[in-house]
Amino acid sequence: MSRSETLQPIVATATVIPVIVLEDAAAAVPLARALVAGGLKVIEITLRTGAALDAIAAIAGEVEDAVVGAGTVLSKGQFVAAEKAGARFMVSPGVGPDVLAAAADSEIPLMPGAATASEVMTLMDEGYTIQKFFPAGPAGGVSYLKALAAPLPDISFCPTGGVDAKNARDYLALPNVIAVGGSWVAPADAVKSGDWAQIETLAREAARLGGSA
């Protein structure tokens, strides 16, 4: 069985997955509600701050329509902690034995990161057919993903890193791209000032990139 089987229905409906770095967990619920209202229900909270786990728990507990996941998962300890907080999927920028072992012991799906054909093939051998392509821009962007499509037709990617409102549609037009990840839908200044209306508008515009809203 593909290890990505339970991830597929989550990511396939996402179009754009907001990649969120939160410094204040108190912003998590209103932010998630704004994103969901705009049509982006799948949300990745990166484990880059001390507020991340509390933010995941708050969204999981209070925003019924949101599907919250944990990003920047670098270790088994982080995987387990995010699962306990209520994360419904995990995302890693790359992958190592520790994270793969955590995923093997859990029912929570992992989207591991890859940046080269060799990394993609290694993860494919582990059963991962949906992978994060990171960092998308520096690693070759749209042209690189086009080149991977022919020799690796069974792999779907979620490019993240350098994806924005200007180039997201180009990525989404590729047959081997299932969704894109990006932070532009929740600008740091809008989050800090609590401008949830702006974030809802940006989310609605992003959702339309895939024709889902």
Spatial arrangement of strands, main beta sheet: 3-2-1-9
The CATH level-2 architecture is identified as Alpha-Beta Barrel
**Count of spatially separate domains:** 1
Shape, per Cα inertia axes? globular
- So what's the CATH class? Alpha Beta
Biggest sheet architecture: 4 strands, parallel
CATH superfamily: Aldolase class I
Our measurement of the CA-to-CA distance between the termini, rounded to an integer number of angstroms, reads 32 Å
Strand content: 15-25%
Regions with little confidence, pLDDT below 50 for 5+ residues: none
The ordered string of helix (H) and strand (E) elements is HEHEHEHEHEEHEHHEHEHH
Tell me the total number of β-strands: 9
Fill in the CATH topology: TIM Barrel
Rg of Cα set:
16 Å
Helical element count?
11
Structural class: alpha/beta
How confident is the prediction overall: mean pLDDT?
96
Model description:
The chain has a single domain (8-208), classed as Aldolase class I (TIM Barrel), CATH 3.20.20.70. Helix content is 42%, strand content 15%. The chain is built from 11 helices and 9 strands. It has helices at 8-11, 28-37, 52-62, 76-85, 97-104, 117-125, 136-139, 141-149, 168-172, 188-193, 196-208, and strands at 16-20, 42-46, 67-71, 90-91, 110-111, 113-114, 130-133, 156-159, 180-182. A 4-stranded parallel β-sheet has the order 3-2-1-9. Strand 1 (16-20), helix 2 and strand 2 (42-46) form a beta-alpha-beta unit. The longest helix is centred in the C-terminal third of the chain and has 13 residues, at 196-208. It is globular and about 45 Å long. The N and C termini lie far apart (32 Å).
